Structures are given as C-alpha cells and as structure tokens.
Amino acid sequence: MRSNRNRPMLSANQQEKLKQYLGLLALEQKSKHWLSCVNKWLNEFVQSVDVQNVSQVTEYLKNLQDKMHPVTYKKEFYQIRRFLRESLELNYLDKIRLPRVNAPLVKIVTNEDIRKTVEYFSNSKFYLRYRAFILLMSSSGLRPSEAWQLKLEDIDFVNRKIYIRVDAKHHTKTGKARVAFFNEKTQFVLERYIKQNKNRRIFNESHFSRAFRHAPLRVKEFRKFFSQEWTRRNGNHAVKEILMGHAQSSVDAQHYLALSEEDLKRIYDKVME
Questions:
Q1: Which residues of the chain are under the pLDDT cut of 70?
Q2: Which residues of 216-233 are buried (b: 16+ CB within 10 A; e: fewer)?
Q3: Which residues lie below 8 Å from residue 109, measured CB to CB, with a gap of 6+?
Q4: Which residues on adjacent β-strands are paired with residue 162?
Q5: CA angle 3, 81, 64 (to 5 degrees)
Q6: Do 64 and 76 contact (CB within 8 A), yes or no?
Q7: What is residue 193's predicted lDDT score, i.e. its pLDDT?
Q8: Which residues, 6+ apart, have CB-to-CB distance to 16 below 8 Å?
Q9: Residue-wise pLDDT tens digits, 90-111
Q10: Which stretches within the chain are classed as H helix?
Q11: Collapsing DSSP states into helix, strand and coil, what is residue 34?
Q12: Short-list 187, 144, 145, CA closest to 170
C-alpha cells in the first residue's frame, strides 16, 4: 500500500490543511523525533490512499496492523484519526476502538548495567564524553530529547542543577519547564568534559544515537535506571515524578509541587548521594 507514496491524493486545499495540522502539532512542544514520526506517518498515509474512500483507508490500516508492533500501530492510528477528524472533518474512524495492548515486561536496569556501559566505551577516544553523558543521564532522569537541547547556560555546576527550559528553542514532552539535579560524581566528570568541549550544545543527538546503537544500554534506558534506582533507595514517589517531569495527577504529587528548588535538592541528595 505504501508503494504509492509518490502519488499525492490530497487536493491542494487538503494538502494545505495537512501542513497546518503539522504546524499546530509543533506548537504542542513535542520532541523533534515525535514530530518527525507524525510527519512521516501522515505523509505516507495521504500519498497512499484517497482519504474520502473508506475502503482504501481500511485496507491501508489493516496492512499497517499486520506488520507493525501493536504499540506503534496504535500511535500511528491515533494520529491518522486525529488528522482526519480535526483537519478534514472526516469522522469515520471515530467508532473504532483498538484493543488494549499488554504492557511489555519491564527491564530492570542495575548499577552493573551502568558500569558495563561505561566500560564498553573504555577504548574510545571519546571516552570522557560518553562517561559524562552516562553519568548525567543516569543520575538526573533526563529524557534524551532534553539532553540534546542542553547548553552550558542550562547547567549550574556549583549547585549541581539543570534547568530544563520551555521556549521557542526548548521543548519538553509535557510542555513544562522544571529543574533536575545530578550527583557529585557526575559533577566531577561533567566539568572535565565541558573543559574539553568547544560547543555550546553539549550532546549531539546523531552522534550519541550511533555510538550507543550496540552498547549494553540504549540512551533511553538511563532514565529508566534513574527511576528504578530512586525506588530501590526508597525515595518518595511523588518527588520522583516531579524530578522526572511526569504529569502530576495525584493529590499527593500536587502538594509536593509547592516545594522549592532547595527543598527538592535536599531530598535528591538524601536519596541519591
């Protein structure tokens, strides 16, 4: 079905609406990777089917479902449905309810995994760079997309603090700014790396994505380690949610939002140092 991708099937007006939809999606301050995925999904969709032809759309989605992981299919289906409904006022997919997808078994990430990943790069000429990245990510709980946006002015080395900003050039998954922290071991290694690094943007996404492709841990798994290690050390769950930038839905978490940066750092140091 995707072999027709070079044959546009949208009218000029509909193509403009697709462009507008993608533009509005960017205002939701999603990561560049997510916006790239949605852009790819929708462009392949509109270039493969006549959006007015329910049979064609149904066949297209069936083909996707047959060859995709259920979680990935669900994400793409929801974006296609949202575009049809909000931009083209086509609601024929609204009644479809996808089955629940069983959550995969959670991978346990340990200190030994962190050690092995650091060791994996021991012979690299960029060893200090990779070690600084691993320690920062595993001690702060940053999302990869947040790490790629980091600049020198976002890091307070004296107080071991990271400012995760939200503005025209900085985006987060939740669209909210926050503060994260790192430990003293990370502080020492990161300062050494920064002295060698000539760029204002500290970590390059494409470089690190390639470097960690075959490493013991993938880039996104350092955040998982932070979450699990915090729990293993009996850290407060609501504070962890704040530090990791999760949406605050519980009443308990709402109370902890009133904590100052100093309060959060004091709790962080007690748990993670």
A1: 1-10, 29-30, 99, 101-104, 167-175, 200, 247-257
A2: bbebebbbbbbbbbbeee
A3: 217, 221, 222, 224, 225, 228
A4: 155, 180
A5: 35
A6: yes
A7: 95
A8: none
A9: 998 988 877 676 666 789 999 9
A10: 12-27, 32-46, 54-67, 70-87, 111-120, 127-140, 144-149, 184-196, 205-211, 221-232, 237-244, 251-256, 261-272
A11: helix
A12: 145
H, E, C per residue of 245-267: CCCCCCHHHHHHCCCCHHHHHHH
Output the pLDDT for position 5.
47
Which residue type does 240 have?
A: K
Who's near 212: CB < 8 A, 6+ residues apart?
A: 218, 219
Q: Distance from CA of residue 231 to its chain's centroid?
A: 21
Q: Whole-angstrom Cα distance, residue 108 to residue 157?
A: 30
Other beta carbons less than 10 A from residue 170's beta carbon: 17
Q: Which two tokens stand for residue 24?
A: 């509005």
Pairing of strands 178-181, 161-164: antiparallel
Torsion of CA 48, 54, 60, 64, to 10 degrees: 130
Backbone CA torsion sign across 148, 151, 154, 159: positive
Q: 3-class DSSP state for residue 201?
A: strand
Over residues 15-66, the pLDDT tens digits come to 888 888 888 887 776 677 788 899 999 999 998 999 999 999 999 999 998 8
Complete domains list, the chain, with CATH: 2-87 (no CATH), 111-272 (1.10.443.10)
Distance (Å, whole) CA 123 – CA 152: 27
C-alpha distances (whole Å) from 144 to each of 12, 23, 116, 164, 216 are 37, 23, 20, 12, 17
